[in-house]
Design a protein that fits this description.
There is one protein chain. The chain has about 220 residues and is of the alpha/beta class. The protein is built from 8 helices and 8 strands. The protein has helices at about 20-30, 50-60, 80-85, 100-110, 155-170, 185-190, 200-205, 210-215; strands at about 5-10, 35-40, 65-70, 90-95, 115-120, 135-140, 175-180, 195-200. The chain has an 8-stranded parallel sheet. β2 (about 35-40), α2 (about 50-60) and β3 (about 65-70) form a beta-alpha-beta unit. The protein starts with 6 loop residues before the first strand and ends with a helix. Bound molecules: D-xylitol-5-phosphate (DX5) and zinc ion.
Length: about 220
């Protein structure tokens, strides 16, 4: 499936939180398609970040799509709060949701796009039954919890497998890849089938984020 251009989603986790508004402006100027917001609870992942309150602050600064990645146990408790705070897309972890179908329908019922993420050790095949219901799949290419980790090479094969699966079951679904994305590996992940690249370190810590964004967004397959 030809993609017109790659979607870029800077991950706010690597931004300067003392200058959050300015960081969002940099992302906007760079043509960010989504602002990726990493929510961590210290239980599902070994780190704690922020909740709906910060999402609300981000939403007040931008009209860009807010893509919220919930790395929390039992996310159903908080999904409504995150949508009300301004999230346009909510992604939950397959590993954190015993009733994933119900959770996905709940996200959609609130008017948000529904995504499911899987950890590096979770096979893509576990998504087969839910795939027709999804707007996006977020493949983790690092173990979730921290920015600045190294891309796990076996993720490339998982993108390919997922790409084949979605062509049969849900061609309109977006494949996003999250963790360790750099200017160097961006082309390989796009060629494998990824449509959206989450970039924390590679974007916010770049000498020239605008240049990095232009290179990533120009990738096609
Ligand atoms: C990791 C988060 C990622 C992270 C990516 O748990 O889900 O979104 O911010 O950061 P980089 O691009 O630095 O790997
Ligand atoms: Zn993320």
């Amino acid at each position: 499936m030809p993609v017109p251009s790659t979607l870029l989603a800077p991950s706010i986790l690597s931004a300067d939180f003392t200058r959050l508004k300015q960081s969002i402006e940099i992302a906007e100027k760079a043509g960010a398609d989504w602002i990726h917001c990493d929510v961590m609870d210290g239980v599902f992942v070994p780190n704690i970040t922020f909740g709906p309150f910060i999402i609300q602050a981000i939403a007040a600064c931008t009209t860009t799509t807010i893509d919220t990645h919930l790395m929390i146990t039992d996310p159903d408790r908080f999904i409504e709060d995150f949508v009300k705070a301004g999230s346009h897309q909510i992604t939950v972890h397959q590993e954190a949701c015993p009733h994933l179908h119900r959770t996905v329908q709940f996200i959609k019922s609130l008017g948000a796009k529904a995504g499911v993420s899987i950890n590096p050790a979770t096979p893509v095949s576990t998504l087969e039954s839910i795939l027709p219901d999804l707007d996006l799949v977020l493949l983790m290419s690092v173990n979730p919890g921290f920015g600045g980790q190294k891309f796990i090479p076996s993720s490339i094969g998982k993108i390919r497998t997922l790409h084949e699966m979605r062509m049969k079951l849900n061609p309109g679904m977006v494949i996003a890849i999250d963790g360790g994305i750099t200017e160097e590996n961006a082309e390989e992940v796009v060629l494998a089938g990824a449509d959206a690249l989450i970039a924390g370190t590679a974007f916010f810590k770049a000498a020239n984020p605008l240049q990095t964004a232009t290179k990533i967004k120009a990738l096609t397959r």
